[in-house]
Write a structure and sequence with these properties.
The structure is a homodimer of 148-residue chains.
Chain A: E1 2-3, H1 5-12, H2 16-24, E2 32-33, E3 39-42, H3 43-57, H4 62-74, H5 79-120, H6 124-128, H7 136-146
Antiparallel strand pairs in A: 1-3, 2-3
Helix pairs in contact in A: 1-2, 5-7
Chain A binds a DNA duplex (30 and 30 nucleotides) through helix 2.
Chain lengths: 148, 148
DNA sequence: ATACAAGTTCAAGTTACCTTTAAGTCAATA
DNA sequence: TATTGACTTAAAGGTAACTTGAACTTGTAT
């Protein structure tokens, strides 16, 4: 199967202008053109675009994704640096998950805080509660929020 | 304890210009000024800034954080919408974690892919491997990447 | 009293990532 | 063959979140 930029964009759930922009930025050196200059996307290009999408989700910048694609275009000599980059991004994603888990704990504290405020008609109640009055799992969170 | 903008920025690990920018954008209505116009941060302001930082980590935009702060400044009448917002952000963070977990699976597949390529001197080996030749946990990932 | 680091405002600059617009070309259908 | 919708490029515009620079003021330390 082959696709135009619009068809491929639809398949990926992105705007056609995004694909044109990526191409312009050098992220899509694998995309060929028809005799008339129209971009011709193949199924194997879809896979490249999925990889680009994956790296984007890790928070990698387009210029770094470009380097990765350029390495891939060089062929088998660049297997090791590509592996290294994947491993690095894997660690980065693990760190991001850990940070979001912490953020989640803070939000759960805040949820409890406003639930308690709602029940009592005032934020003063959870705010002035002694540390040992609050549920055990929220004590560390409150200390951290208050910088203690 | 009271702090200048520079001291508070240091305590938070951000640039002083960031705090001035937030103030300018209306995110810090609780910060008072000295007679000479210098910002005076209190310990309770540190806690607000930590909450702002938490909401930022959830991916919330500054204009939406501003709305939250404005509600908080209104007092106890806004407990319910604040609770609703926290719960919404909690769900958003859970979704972000789920997406990163999926991204992690893809990266683990890619790690295996390049490890196998490295062992065999060519990406052709993992690329052309039959689906039932690859480790079970990577089969669904490859199908998704190839759009099958 | 004087120096001087760090504060102030306002405006302009920066970066990343697209999107939009304009002017024109390609290619599938009637 | 003519129409029409989707393609092309180049350049400009947009947005979020800061950062920087210039010109000036505050407040602490000698």
């Amino acid at each position: 199967m082959i696709y135009t930029v619009g068809e491929m964009a639809k398949r990926l759930g992105v705007a056609p202008s995004t694909l044109r922009y990526y191409d312009q930025e050098g992220l899509l050196p694998f995309v060929e053109r028809s005799s008339g200059g129209i971009r011709v996307f193949k199924d194997s290009d879809y896979e490249w675009l999925q990889v680009i999408g994956c790296l984007k989700k890790t928070g990698m910048q387009l210029k770094d994704i470009k380097s990765f694609i350029e390495m891939a275009m060089q062929g088998d000599e660049t297997i090791e640096p590509r592996l290294a980059l994947i491993v690095k991004q894997k660690e980065s994603v693990k760190a991001q998950i850990a940070e979001l888990e912490e953020t989640l704990c803070t939000l759960e504290f805040k949820e409890w805080y406003y639930e308690t405020a709602k029940e009592n008609g005032s934020t003063a109640v959870p705010r002035n509660m002694a540390l040992d009055e609050l549920p055990e799992q929220f004590r560390k969170v409150r200390l951290k929020l208050r910088g203690e």
